[in-house]
Design goal:
It contains 3 helices and 12 strands. It has 189 residues and is mainly beta.
């Protein structure tokens, strides 16, 4: 299955029940247009040797890092995703050393092709926490070069163990509907 596109990022702030670990999400939002996305899993790699050979092994996902490239730096979205204060009247973001980024759910649509047929794969990461992005700016030279914004964060395995959900669709509208429904389990069940 060849990947031929990326679009429709979605996110929502997560609230995690301290007793049960159940996750609920706030309003589903779009942080900007999708430019890039990467996920690097962290795997356990436990091995038990017995009688001079490998007897048992465990190689499960224990978390990871995701990086989301977007086309714009929307102040209100960045403040929400990074736990900063945003003043609606002045449109100012205030970043404090004591700010704590919330957990968020993150989703995307990947356009794929198999045997000449186009599909749309909706992928959802249940619990991520983004960190402050690095910043690098350049002066404009003889030719214009576009640059974009990247947010990187930790992917955490939730209490129920379901850290990712994916489903393939023949319609982009169906993929988006599924993805947005994952933020509200009663809709996506």
């Amino acid at each position: 299955m060849a990947k031929i596109g990326l679009n429709n990022f979605r996110y929502a702030v997560a609230t995690i029940d301290e007793t049960t670990g159940a996750i609920s999400y706030g309003t589903v939002k779009k942080p900007g247009k999708a430019v890039s996305f990467s996920f690097e899993p962290t795997n356990s790699d436990a091995k038990l040797y017995a009688d001079d050979s490998l007897a048992e092994s465990d190689n499960r996902v224990t978390g990871g890092t995701c990086t989301m490239g977007i086309d714009r730096l929307d102040a209100q979205t960045m403040a929400e995703v990074l736990g900063h204060d945003y003043d609606n009247s002045t449109q100012e973001v205030v970043s404090n050393v004591n700010d704590i980024a919330p957990y968020i759910g993150v989703g995307r649509i990947v356009r794929v092709m198999q045997d000449g047929v186009q599909y749309f794969r909706a992928t959802f990461l249940a619990q991520c926490k983004f960190s402050e992005p690095s910043s690098s700016d350049n002066t404009m030279g003889e030719s214009v070069e576009f640059s974009t914004y990247e947010l990187s964060g930790a992917v955490v395995v939730p209490a129920d163990g379901n850290w990712r959900r994916e489903k393939l669709f023949t319609s982009q509208a169906d993929a988006i509907s599924y993805l947005e429904g994952l933020f509200n389990p009663s809709i996506s069940a």
